[in-house]
Structures are given as structure tokens and as C-alpha cells.
Amino acid sequence: MNSVLTWSVLLGTSMSCYAIKLVGYWVPARWLAHERLQRINSLIPVVLLSALVVAQALAIKTHIVLDHRMAGIAAAFAMLIARAPFPVVVVSAAFTSALVYRLH
Known about the structure:
The chain has 104 residues and is mostly helical. The protein has a domain at 1-33. The chain has five helices and two strands, in the order αααββαα. The chain has helices at 3-26, 29-32, 35-58, 68-81, 86-103, and strands at 59-60, 63-64. A two-stranded antiparallel sheet has the order 1-2. A hairpin with a 2-residue loop joins strand 1 and strand 2. Helix 4 runs antiparallel to helix 5 (86-103). The radius of gyration is 20 Å and the shape is flat. The model has no long low-confidence stretch (mean pLDDT 92).
């Protein structure tokens, strides 16, 4: 890609993001106060973070791979189901991932 195209895409994307943000200020407050919209907005960060974790755990470039990372995700999921404290979840995921990596 040449530099003119790169800068054009960058500036176009930046202007689009700014326009979306600006339109958000014009939305009436009563539209944003609906309970259903509040519930949906509270779930968006959770969904995006979950999608990022799954994408990073399953993909290497364009291939889907099941390796030590999925074992760590499974261990973290098990600890979350068991309602373990967050540091325990992180350490168990790291330990499980490292163990599977070492044994493989």
C-alpha cells in the first residue's frame, strides 16, 4: 500500500469515528435512559473482551489452533465457575497453560 492511500484511510477512519462520537452527543437523554438499552450497554465490554480472548486463544494468523492457550482458558473458566478470586483464576490459567506447553 502506498503512503497516500494509507493516509487517506487513516484520515477517513478518524473523521468517521469523530462523526459517530459527535452524533452521540445529539441523541436525546431520554432515549439513553431506557432500561433495555442500559442492560445492552453494560454487556458490550464483556462481549468485546470475550471475543478478543477467544480470538487470541484460538487463532494463529489465519489458522484455528487448539494448543496450550485453550487449556489455560479452560482452567480459567473452571475457576470462574467455582467462583475463585481473580488472582487465583489468573494464576491457575497461567500455570495450566505453562504445564501443557512444557508437556507438549
